[in-house]
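Thread amino acids onto this structure.
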């Protein structure tokens, strides 16, 4: 996999993405494109419309009286607007019915536009019409330095695509964050895990997802440690801010929760200081702890002792004026 695939999937259903319209979804519904799980397949599962697939599948097109075949498209609202670094078009399990070609366009729209209102948007081609294979994940690097809110997947002329992954860097609208108490560690506000000791079972970015984890796999889980060290993760905050309350959620970790946690913060000069001394944790519990610090931090390190994971990590606080300036100038530069 190329580098961009480790970035969050901005289109993912569990990050608020939605497939808001499609030209056709006769065989399989458009919503499957952004399912968070890997595409599944059971052979010989024929329903009333045909074989069942975990993807978006359109009818076989036939030329009209002018010999025109047309093509199919699906419109996706990103859950998290941002700069797109790469797209994966996955035709998993579509072997005799994949589209031979596909392309992707993107646009930036303010507010909450309907599919009809997006027709006149300024669409930019981010993946040119490219050849596809059946049952394969195709990666396309994207090199457009702009914040996008929607993408349109085109397939030529018809067929089935299991997943569309739109990896990129989240660029939040600073007007929705300035002056408010926010989760400085939320993926949707632009935070990310930059390093961790172990991600054997699941990715530490999962801790920063919105809402609650429905099961263990939707959080961060490490392998069992067999040495005397402990697991840890470093989170780059949405922007420089002051943290007033930390939330360590061990929900769903019943026999593998960490025994304790510590938290430290790094300032813009790169110096680390303790934000929370070693504190015991209970399994399957959401712990909310007020922090006794008004220091500006850009990164935090969460240490779990000795291993296990966390379902969610929330760091409530506010942006400092440096944080607000940074977010505003980035948003402005990428929106112009
Ligand atoms: N869902 C389908 O049945 N699709 C196709 N057919 C099979 N057998 O997969 C097709 O494109 O005709």
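Threaded sequence (336 positions):
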């Amino acid at each position: 996999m190329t580098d961009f695939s480790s970035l969050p999937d901005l289109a993912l259903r569990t990050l608020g993405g939605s497939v808001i319209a499609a030209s056709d979804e006769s065989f399989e519904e458009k919503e499957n494109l952004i399912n968070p799980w890997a595409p599944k397949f059971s052979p010989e599962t024929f329903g009333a419309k045909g074989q069942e697939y975990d993807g978006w599948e359109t009818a076989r097109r036939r030329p009209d009286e002018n010999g025109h075949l047309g093509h199919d498209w699906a419109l996706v609202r990103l859950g998290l607007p941002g700069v797109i670094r790469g797209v994966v078009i996955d035709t998993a399990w579509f072997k005799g019915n994949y589209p031979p070609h596909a392309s992707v366009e993107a646009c930036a729209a303010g507010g909450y536009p309907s599919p009809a209102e997006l027709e006149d948007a300024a669409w930019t081609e981010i993946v040119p019409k490219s050849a596809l294979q059946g049952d394969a994940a195709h990666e396309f690097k994207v090199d457009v330095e702009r914040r996008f809110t929607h993408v349109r997947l085109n397939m030529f002329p018809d067929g089935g695509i299991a997943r569309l992954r739109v990896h990129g860097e989240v660029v939040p609208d600073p007007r929705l964050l300035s002056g408010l108490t926010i989760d400085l560690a939320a993926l949707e506000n632009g935070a990310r895990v930059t390093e961790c000791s172990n991600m054997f079972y699941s990715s530490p970015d999962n801790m920063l997802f919105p809402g609650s984890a429905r099961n263990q796999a939707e959080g961060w889980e490490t392998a069992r440690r067999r040495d005397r060290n402990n697991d840890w993760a470093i989170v780059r905050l949405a922007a420089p801010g002051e943290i007033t309350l930390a939330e360590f959620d061990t929900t769903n970790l019943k026999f593998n929760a960490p025994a304790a946690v510590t938290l430290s913060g790094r300032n813009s000069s790169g110096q680390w200081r303790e934000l929370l001394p070693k504190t015991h944790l209970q399994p399957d519990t959401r712990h909310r702890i007020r922090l006794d610090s008004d220091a500006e931090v850009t990164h935090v390190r969460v240490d779990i002792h000795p291993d296990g994971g966390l379902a969610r990590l929330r760091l409530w606080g506010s942006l400092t004026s440096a944080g607000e300036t940074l977010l505003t100038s980035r948003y402005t530069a990428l929106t112009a």
